[in-house]
Amino acid sequence: MKKTHIFAALTIGSYEVTLTIYEVSPQGGMRLLNKIKQKIELGKDTIRSGRISNEKVKQLCKKLLKLKPVMEEFGVEEVLAYGATALREAENQYFVLEQIKNTTGFDVKIVNNPEQSFLVYKGVVSNPAFDEIAKDGVAILDASPGRLRVTIYHDGDLTLTQNVSLGSMKIREWVKNTGYSQEDKTFLIREIISYRFKELDSLFLDDVKLKTLIISGDLFTSQPRWKSKKGDILNAEKFLKLCRKGEKHLEQNMALTEDADILLPSVIICEEFFKRIGAKQAWISGIEMNDGIAYEHAMATRYLPPHHDFTQDIHSEVVKVMDRFITETDHNYYVDKVSDIIFKCLAKKVGFTTHDRLLLHTAALLHNVGSYIAMTDSANISSYIVKRTDLVGFSDKDREMLGEIIRCHKMSYEDFLDTIGEQKFSREEMSLIGRLSILLGVANTLDVAHCQKFDTIRVNIKDDEVRITVNSLSDGVLEKNFIEGHKEFFESMFGYKLVLREKNQRYVTL
């Protein structure tokens, strides 16, 4: 490993392009070298027409090319380029991304809403001040021009990441042509925001008590007339006074600058949300998505040691989704434990990764959420719910694969072959879906009666067999009968015969 590594995080947002250059080393940690922002309103095109115009794409490419000499000057070795809301929601995003790559050489990765929220969250968590501030519960608010994102961290767990289609650019377009006076427009903005927050209240925030609102981004740190310092912690009186000062200044300058049209809704969002959750203080973190990108990259390349368990954060939110649909969760936890034991036995032979394990773990906890709606066809309903639920830490492709793992876990091998070919997955992805589906199916079958009758279990490979040996207080005739339907599928996926045996001996306690 080199002593130092210089890299850049590049984010293409709805309102601006942000380039941040970092130096990272095991001894010195991570250091900010330079930060550049260039305004370009891609979101305006997406909101008005659903696609980004050719003229805007050309402007974007010109701005990106101007950043290259800066990177060369600092000796940037690697560029991590991400596209946010405007590119993600553009109907012509693939053509835009191809044009960016051909013109500038930047290979831009599109992140979905949960991934974007998680990157901001990682940037906030990486700050040394976070652990102390988060003791009494925090809400992280990312009031960006493209979309509003709320992340709740409470009692040491990530309990909510929710995205609301309430970006300040969209609000501006809603109220721009109303013909109202500026005073009436401000009232209308506040009314829209208040209405959407009431929906968020009833679904997620009713019983949550939070001391601190963390403001991400540079909304309150980049304004010369009413700015606060990055890292400031303001009590309720001072923060609300700052918001009112900002609103007054923006209202006065609305006719002079288009920026005010964008900033005013964001300030009102921060003020209204602060009052809505009854927070006692606000932390003006100044942390942006690029900070999370940089922290994630520094950990992945092992220049920085991880000091926070983000896998546990993902688990916490998955459990919250499960609890929303399932009242008796013993079966889900049991299936999760059983599937994990079988997974570990096969991991080295098959070459499973830690991400594969996370997919199986999530599928096990959510495999029957559709039963809340209907017992019949619950696998398909569960698949539908998972594919359309924002799950932090998972890409859109991950969510699609999770849905298929759940949909196929009760299928025969023949039915799986008939249905998986219709999906748009690579050969490797189809193989992984098949393998994780059958592991989930076998684990689910071992608790088919939902009574967790096998109190101990051992899985081992001998010759050409995967042997599942169980100990129970009652006979496993039902499970043996159901598991017959999985044997062909299992052998086709792993090349081993599946054998279920009962034995009066304790092995691994679940």
Task: Characterise this structure.
The structure is a single chain. This protein is α/β, with parallel strands linked by helices. Helices cover 51% and strands 18% of the residues. The strands form 3 sheets. The chain has a 6-stranded mixed beta sheet with strand order 8-7-6-9-11-10, with helices on both faces. Strands 3-2-1-4-5 form a 5-stranded mixed beta sheet, sandwiched between helices. A 4-stranded mixed beta sheet has the order 14-13-12-15, covered by helices on one side. Helix 7 (168-176) crosses helix 10 (258-277) and helix 15 (378-387) runs antiparallel to helix 16. The longest helix is centred in the middle third of the chain and has 24 residues, at 182-205.
Using DSSP, what is the number of strands? Answer: 15
Tell me the distance between the termini: 41 Å
Helicity range of the residues? 40-55%
The geometry reads as globular
Put the structure in a nutshell.
With 510 residues, the chain is α/β, with parallel strands linked by helices.
Describe how the helices and strands are arranged:
Layout: E1 5-12, E2 16-25, E3 29-39, H1 42-49, H2 54-74, E4 78-83, H3 85-89, H4 93-104, E5 109-110, H5 113-125, H6 130-133, E6 138-143, E7 148-154, E8 157-164, H7 168-176, H8 182-205, E9 212-215, E10 233-235, H9 236-252, H10 258-277, E11 281-284, H11 289-300, H12 310-325, H13 330-350, H14 354-366, H15 378-387, H16 396-408, H17 413-420, H18 427-445, E12 454-462, E13 465-472, H19 477-483, H20 487-494, E14 497-502, E15 508-509
Parallel strand pairs: 1-4, 4-5, 6-9, 9-11, 13-14
Antiparallel strand pairs: 1-2, 2-3, 6-7, 7-8, 10-11, 12-13, 12-15
